[in-house]
Write a structure and sequence with these properties.
By secondary structure, the protein is α+β, with helices and mostly antiparallel strands. It has a domain of 70 residues. 19% of the residues lie in helices and 26% in strands. It has three helices and seven strands. It has a four-stranded antiparallel β-sheet, with no helix packed on it. A hairpin with a 2-residue loop joins strand 2 and strand 3. The longest helix has 11 residues. The relative contact order is 0.12.
Length: 129
């Protein structure tokens, strides 16, 4: 305080108070970080739930940030990879079709049209009309 002359700390505080910025109104959200390996089905497991990741990352270890309502997936270099709403209740998986290779989207969803095409490849007479 010797550099400020005869000014007391309370007086100095009152003078500098006008330069203060207001505090942020939103609360800080605590995150939990985990390291996960991307499974061959293009998903990572977080708290017994599964979240899809682009197929290019299969077999890689990724970082997952768990927030109150969001699951974020990052590479080891912290490049963003995927983001999902956090699953609640009986829901087991959050899957984004764009994370699958184009030829496996129908298989992942096991659509009826895909099943018919597989049956036709086995034997064309398998299909009943």
């Amino acid at each position: 305080m010797k550099n400020h002359g005869d000014v007391s700390r309370p007086d100095r505080f009152q003078n500098e108070k006008q330069n203060f910025l207001p505090l942020k109104t939103n609360n800080f959200e605590i995150s939990i970080w985990k390291t996960c390996k991307v499974h061959s089905d293009y998903h990572v497991q977080v708290d017994r739930k599964f979240y899809s990741v682009p197929y290019q990352h299969v077999g890689q270890t990724v970082k997952v940030r768990i927030k109150q309502n969001i699951i974020e997936v990052f590479t080891q270099d912290t490049d963003p990879v995927a983001i999902h709403a956090k699953l609640r209740g009986a829901e087991k998986a959050s899957t984004i079709d764009a994370h699958y290779p184009k030829d496996q989207i129908a298989l992942a969803r096991f659509e009826v049209k895909h099943a018919i095409n597989l049956a036709y490849k086995v034997e064309p007479k398998t299909i009943c009309k």
